[in-house]
Amino acid sequence: MTRQHVAARVDLGAIRANVAALRAATSAEVLAVVKADGYGHGLLPSARAAVAGGATWLGTALLDEALELRAAGITAPRVLAWLIGPGEAWADALAADVDVSVNAGWALDEVVAAARQTGTTARVHLKVDSGLGRGGAAPADWADLVEAARKAEAEGVVRVVGLWSHLAYADAPGHPTIVRQAEVFREAVALAEGAGIDPEVRHLANSAATLTAPEHHFDLVRPGLAVYGLSPVPDVAGPSSYGLRPAMTLAANLVHVKRVPAGSGVSYGHIYTTERETTLGLVPLGYADGVPRAGGNVGPVLAAGRSRTVAGRVCMDQLVLDLGDDDVAVGDEVVLFGPGDDGGPTAQDWAEATGTISNEIVTRVGPRDPRVYVEGGREVTP
Ligand SMILES: *Cc1c(COP(=O)(O)O)cnc(C)c1O
Fold first, then answer.
1. Residue 340 is part of which domain span?
2. Number of domains, the chain
3. Least C-beta-crowded within 10 Å: which of 19, 255, 286, 351?
4. Beta strands 29-33 and 57-60: pairing type?
């Protein structure tokens, strides 16, 4: 399906350069996180651009996403999938040379069964919960998990190639939980290594820790948001301070323009009323495209060379702009967010206007909005 009048333009050169900047910021290897369709930027093009920028690993939440990378011929980098559930397609993971995260005995049992059946050795990353309170094994369960993994290693069906954890508060540099989590992680690593596990990589850092906490990089860092050029610590510094540039521009063409008198109510509920005679422009993007409904009367848009605010409610498929007396016509392009260096709004601006984080703004751009790939300003087929 090609949709006219809307484009999520993705600058592949920006993704490549962002990964190169992240590489330059660490002596660890870089795993580029491409989960959730590359944070909305497109799984395969983002992955290829990240690898071209120097990522030696790729990371996904879902095993399906990891398998899609391999099926598309992305063979060189290591690929890790971490959001694993019972009955997972373990055999497919083994056949595709995908590393899997294991955080509990049942998951180890399932991957061991698949490895026995297929006569292969599963590459496993054991995950400990060092304090995020999310996916890892509780520290109290860690010794048992390590022991079970050692038994599987002795049998030759598993190789523990990674030990890892995830931070709760890396976006608040200096937060006391960061050092505390790193300590818990180091203890878990020491216990595993003491039991004979010899991992290729130990990893803890997301984008924020990659940029602000070099002491916690270990052997591998796992940036996601920063790969796409957005700042994981917007209260501290914008992306350009880290040599990053936002890769996605969400743009649309005006599909209707009309003069209306003063006092005209605009969009559902008339939460906006024109102050004087003015021109209204209709933008064919709404909350079904991922534009937050909370952006009514507050979301920023660049139109006719000026930043403005959405007029009235954001609807399912459309929103309205009050363009004053500016010279606009049907077909003119407006930009909801982009790199920001043209004076236009960024995904971070939308996040601040609507009470969320930039990750959510780019990731929610809908599947019906075509991704258009550009390199140096020119459209390319990735
Ligand atoms: C999403 C995710 C990352 C990347 O996080 P960013 O904050 O986007 O850099 C890293 N590790 C894990 C486990 C994740 O789920």
1. 248-380
2. 2
3. 255
4. parallel
Identify the CATH number of the domain in which residue 272 sits. 2.40.37.10
pLDDT, residue 365, reads: 97
Whole-model pTM? 0.97
Taking only the tens place, the pLDDT of each residue in 289-325 is 999 999 999 999 999 999 999 999 999 999 999 999 9
Residue whose CB lies within 8 A of the most ligand 1 atoms, among 34, 222, 225, 358, for a mutation test: 222
Q: Say if CB 75 and CB 50 are below 8 A apart.
A: no
Q: Average of pLDDT values for 188-207?
A: 98
Same-domain check for residues 268 and 215: no
Give 50-59 pLDDT, tens digit per residue. 999 999 999 9
User: Which of 15, 31, 33 has most ligand 1 atoms within 8 Å of CB, for mutation?
Assistant: 33
Tell me if 235 is assigned to some domain. no
Answer left, alpha or beta for residue 36, where phi above 0 means left and psi between -120 and 50 means alpha: left
Q: What integer is the mean pLDDT of 324-352?
A: 96
Please tell me if the CB atom of residue 206 comes closer than 6 angstroms to any atom of ligand 1. Answer: yes
Query: Is residue 151 among the annotated active site residues?
Result: no
Indicate if ligand 1 lies below 6 Å from the C-beta of 207. yes
Backbone angles phi, psi at 65, to 5 degrees: -65, -40
Burial category of 174 from C-beta neighbours within 10 Å (exposed 0-12, middle 13-18, buried 19 and up): exposed
Point out the catalytic residue in the list 35, 127, 287, 373: 35
Q: Verify that 334 and 282 share a domain, yes or no.
A: yes
The mean pLDDT value for 321-336 works out to: 98
Binding site membership of 224 for ligand 1 (Cβ less than 6 Å)? yes
In this prediction, residue 10 has a pLDDT band, given cuts at 50, 70 and 90, of very high
Active site residue 268: yes
Whether the Cβ atoms of residue 267 and residue 287 lie closer than 8 Å to each other: no
Closest Cα to atom 6, ligand 1: which residue?
A: 224
Classify residue 236: in a domain, yes or no: no
